[in-house]
Design a protein that fits this description.
With about 325 residues, this protein is of the alpha/beta class. Helix content is about 45%, strand content about 20%. It binds nicotinamide-adenine-dinucleotide.
Amino acid sequence: MSTFKTLKICVTGAAGQIASHFIPQLLNGLIFTDSIKINLSLLDINIPPVIKMLNGIKLELEDCNYKSLLSVSTSTDANEAFKNCDIIIFLGGFPRKPGMNRSDLLNQNSKIFVQQGEALINANENCKCIVVANPCNTNCEILYKSAKKKNEKINKNNFTSLSRLDQNRCESLYKICNNGKEEINGIIIGNHSNTMVIENNNNIKFDEKFIEKIQKRGGEILETKGLSSSFSAAKAIADHLKDWYYGNNNKLISMGVVIEKDDEIIKNKNEIVCSLPLKLKGNFEYEIEKEIMKKFMNDENTKEKIEKSVKELNEEIEMINN
Ligand code: NAD
């Protein structure tokens, strides 16, 4: 008789475009080995065409005969969808609409993440969260702080946001520029925005044009394709989840993580979610790579860029609070 471990995994925004690329990767053995079986929970909003779509997705997934899939459930209620979850991937968010300013967008999304943070009380206490919906760092901070109000003992290390797409872009475009002759370990620090700081663990000084290309890549895709990144985002979430679960001894991995207030490197007056280089040790454990952060903070130019991006993260939260 085969033995296996079961994980309940929820994907929010399950009727959206990233979900349609991510879910097949999740179930196809690209992230977890055969010893893990999945109960999949799909959450989206309560409007008839979306519910119809969710139900259709459930039927198709059941037809795929994935080795790993035990069950699929659908819901429009986060309390129900998160029940007993071990992992939640947060793709669902409010998109920017014509006439909306940045503060409107932040406020709409903050309402969603306050509610979903409260709903985390229904998930397993150690449920691991990956926030992708933008602004992903700020949404993750709101999620964490809202969950903490319901359970003050909640572990801050359970909350992460996606920087891996930016890291993948940096490493992949560098390799492409060099015809595959040189591979690097890219590092992303700060916000997932144009202020993100792009560095590496190879003592290479990047050209400013290269940095700008990575910072603006999301916009370039949106303009060229007419839609935001989807399969590259799905691949990045798969990389993030796989490395967070199994560890990665080969390189530093960038993720948005909760940094305590007055952290020894990023001295901030509040807890914030900020992308940093991490050593991933397996079983969802990580350590911030402090030595390389100290090296970056000793360089006046890099320090200034990091502080600018951290300031922007603080401003996003202030825009919501006001
Ligand atoms: P999409 O618009 O195709 O799908 C979003 C889905 O979320 C929709 O089905 C929508 O109905 C649903 N949704 C909205 N509010 C919800 C709620 N309260 N609860 C549950 N579901 C809800 O968007 P997409 O292309 O799949 O992108 C998803 C998110 O990921 C966007 O916010 C996008 O900006 C972000 N993104 C982040 C990165 C990154 O690197 N961090 C990269 C690409 C995209």
